[in-house]
Amino acid sequence: MKVCVGLSGGVDSSVAALLLKEQGYDVFAMFMQNWNDASTTLHGDCEWEEDRFLAELVARKIGIPFYFVDLSGEYRKRVVDYMFDEYSKGRTPNPDVLCNREIKFDAFWEAAKKLGAEMVATGHYCRKAQNPDGTWSLLAGADGNKDQSYFLCQLSQEQLSKALFPIGEIEKPEVRRLAREADLPSADKKDSQGICFVGKVDLPVFLQQKLASIEGDVVEVFDAFYESNPQYHEIQSILSSLPASGDIPDDSLEKLSAALSYDSIVFETETYRSGRHHVKKTRFKDNPFGKILGKHEGAQFYTIGQRKGLAIGGHREPLFVIGNDIGRNVVYVGEGPAHKGLMRRCLKILPEEVHWIRPSLAMVPGETRRQKVRIRYRQPLQDAVLIMREGGLFILFDEAQRGITPGQFAAFYDGPELTGSGVILR
User: Fold this and answer.
1) By the 8 A CB rule, do 376 and 391 touch?
2) Is the pLDDT of residue 195 over 60?
3) Any catalytic annotation for residue 99?
């Protein structure tokens, strides 16, 4: 069987290629270029060229043909343009999930087929298994510390059927050992970070290619706001009286999943006289619910749960972004990782955004299902109940989650099997 390995220059894809060759497959490697704008990366102007050179050395060492394909046009159209659109709406997309669905297992696969490939392999730490009915299940990788199934949560049955994951049963230290044993040039290369096949980027600079930088206020929200906020108290009341049966009214689910509004925190000004000459000045009146801490360069550049990049000090604990109002261009922050504005129990996914790896597992309105869920890569799996309604899929967690972020993917697991996923609406 002829297999195309997506060779990135990293150790994982290198060992994937090595194992396939040792197993007797007819293997060839292909390096994809997905980005050619060096002005937005943090590591110089030729990072992808260095990766390509290393990938070619690996292919030569293993003894397999090497090809290059430029998919930058498809990547910009199918991943980057989507990113810009989502950020402009105040949502935070996951480009790595999109890259796998739209590029690695679609555009890349189409290019590989033209070279005779029957399957495509990657260096993902995940597994797949065929079911008695012929369908495929996507399983977590054997290495719990490196499991990357989350990044593949949007794959279809057709895509999964043509995919191979040679290192899915292996732990990372073993992958490194195999690479060193085979004297692969990538054996000691550090794991890549940043956007899939783009590299580490300065995100605001990256987004400013299309999104305007507009100065706005950074507002800290105090605990007093929650003590007197009707929406917050209604949510807490619903949570305290949830029926054991899980039969929760639709309107209660909508309220539980709704993000808190901070529009009621307004700042009035007052004039006063200062100094010996009694110069007339203007200042904001004290507000028990919040305080303007400083300025930002655009609310769309910030994501819920973010703690870096605010450049605001003077607090005992770190500040976290708890909300961004794109219309008013305000970023709301709270002090400490347990701030009330960061913690939520429920999220919503629109019906058209729910994706099931195996269609036979799809939930129908009125159905509930207990599964494990993660809302970001490397987050430990969380206990939750999936509740399907006509208006969408609601996920009610047993414990409050920090930083539920619109635009990110929630992935659902039944044991080691990733059953489905969806884009978080709120």
Assistant:
1) no
2) no
3) yes
| CATH 3.40.50.620 placement within the chain | 2-123+166-207
For 198, list phi and psi in degrees, rounded to 5: -115, -40
Separation between Cα atoms, residue 220 and residue 214, nearest integer Å: 19
Half-sphere exposure of residue 74: CA atoms within 13 angstroms, side-chain side: 21
Chain-centroid distance, C-alpha 216: 26
Fold of 2-123+166-207: Rossmann fold (3.40.50)
Q: Which one of 4, 99, 153, 346 is the catalytic residue?
A: 99
Residue 67 has a pLDDT of: 97
Alpha-carbon gap, residue 305 to 322, rounded angstroms: 6
d(CA 358, CA 138): 9
Among 39-53, 333-347, 372-386, 402-416, the minimum mean pLDDT is found in: 39-53
Of the residues 4, 126, 196, 346, only one is catalytic, namely 196
Q: Which CATH number fits domain 343-423: 3.55.30.10, 2.120.10.30, 3.40.50.720, 2.40.30.10?
A: 2.40.30.10
Q: What is the mean pLDDT of the chain?
A: 91
The encoded tokens of residue 415 equal 């044991």
3-state SS, residue 34: coil
- 426, with CB counted inside 10 A (0-12, 13-18, 19+), is middle
Give yes or no for a contact between 413 and 371, defined as CB atoms under 8 angstroms apart: yes
Mode of pairing for the β-strands spanning 409-414 and 368-374 = antiparallel
Average of per-residue pLDDT across 373-391:
96
What is the secondary structure of 327-371 as a DSSP string? Answer: TTTEEEEEESTT-TTTEEEEEEE-GGGEEESSGGG---TT-EEEE
Structural tokens at position 283: 């200042």
Lowest-pLDDT range, 267-271, 331-335, 355-359? 267-271
pTM: 0.91
- Cβ atoms 394, 347 nearer than 8 A: yes
φ, ψ of residue 202 to 5 degrees: the values are -85, 100
C-alpha distances in Å from residue 307, one per residue of 91, 96, 263, 332: 16, 21, 22, 12
User: What is the pLDDT averaged over residues 1-22?
Assistant: 96
Q: What are residue 397's DSSP bridge partners? A: 384
Residue 34 confidence class, pLDDT cut points 50, 70, 90? confident
- Residue 395, phi then psi, degrees to nearest 5: -115, 115
